[in-house]
Amino acid sequence: MRVDRFLSNLPRFNRKQVRLLLVARRVRVDGIAISDPHHEVREFSRVECDDEVLQEGRPARYFMLHKPMGCVSATVDPQHPTVLDLIDEPDKQDLHIAGRLDFNTSGLMLITNDGQWSRRLTQPQTKLPKIYYVETEQDIGLEYIKKFREGFYFAFENLTTLPAELTLLGPRRARLSIVEGRYHQVKRMFGFFNNKVLRLHRESMGPLRLDSDLAPGSYRALTLEEVARM
Ligand code: URA
What we know:
This protein has helices spanning 3-8, 15-23, 115-122, 143-150, 185-191, 224-229, and strands at 27-29, 32-34, 47-49, 52-55, 62-67, 96-98, 106-112, 130-136, 153-154, 159-160, 165-170, 173-178, 197-205, 208-209, 219-221. The strands form three sheets. Strands 5, 6, 7, 8, 11, 12, 13, 14 and 15 form a nine-stranded mixed beta sheet that branches. The chain is of the alpha+beta class. The mean pLDDT is 95. The chain has six helices and 15 strands. It has two domains: 3-55, Roll (Structural Genomics Hypothetical 15.5 Kd Protein In mrcA-pckA Intergenic Region, Chain A); 62-224, Pseudouridine synthase (2-Layer Sandwich). Uracil (URA) binds at residues 101-102, 105, 184-187, 200.
């Protein structure tokens, strides 16, 4: 919300007072005096006027989890353990997943209470590269590389996938970088060649690599620097 609207919504200030407060630079958001009425105030922002705190700001929280296989990317599931079951934090109901993985896919998963951050990360326009380690049932041919670059037509969504970079690591092992996150995308891409994906593991999302110290099922908070880098 814009700071002028945030202030006008408080019973104590009318519009004129808000304008004057801003012009006099008496309002601080996250410690910085501001005069721009469009400056954004979020639920996480600390807002002060002179020496008075108008909003404390909820702490924004960001975690990286090593998702194990056999666990659902959901907050609740009647049958299976969920990734949220692995998180031992207060106010867990505020947390959500930024970029789901299938039941048997393992690897890097981001969990946060910051909806704006997770939306930006996962929306297709952001084109955040996600890197997967893949093992398949059949050999992976050299012709795959060209096809992954050209894209696959997904009839259900009526779209062609954006260029993806496939690197062969062995006859049935590869590393794949994709910038989208369509439903079962990697499995559908290999499915084009009737080649079943037997193992799928997300190694990184953009600049963030899964911490090698994190065993499957464990997690840690992101550092401020990592949050900013994303
Ligand atoms: N693509 C898939 O098919 N599954 C995942 O879990 C992630 C990407």
